[in-house]
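Tutorial, part two.
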Amino acid sequence: METERVRRIWDKAAPSYDADIAFFERVLFAGGRQWICSQADVNVLEIAIGTGRNLPFYPPGVQLTGVDFSPAMLQIARRRATDLGIDVDLLVGDAQALEFEDASFDTVVITLALCSIPDERKAVAEAWRVLRAGGRILLLEHVRSLLLPVRAFQLLVNFFTVRFQGDHMVREPLEHLRATRFVIDDVRRSKLGIVERVVAHKP
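Running the prediction step on this input gives:
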């Protein structure tokens, strides 16, 4: 099963994840986590919270829940939350089948995760389901570039990253947000169109 394969990949990657992503954070995603998390409000669900790299950037007073399907990643997130003195409910869970009631959250945050969730359409549909009317989804992702030469390179790399890392280089979450009836409020693309920040809401 693809979900179990990807879970094993991320469990194995967990100890070195923070060091491995640090370069890409600086070069591609600088300021992205801060921009996304600063807009989170009230009762917040972070899907695929990983090692908790977003934790320092949430506003004070939010009620935060984080889920991830990698226990090894969550173990690091728990240590980070303790070190930061942040109260967060961290749970093992599958973004494709969340164990929350409908309309449970005011904000859903997903950063650099729809690229590796096996069925990103299910994850977006689940985000819609657990959001209250008027609730917002906040995304930071690497996506399929609109520039043909860049996209061609992404397609080449994609063959290897999907196979060995479960990481898809040519996805475009906006397609699934619109198909799920989210209203797109803000889209910001950068880095030759491969980095995307999105704010959308459930009407």
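Helices lie at 2-27, 32-37, 71-84, 120-130, 148-165, 173-179. In part three we will examine how such features are distributed along the chain.
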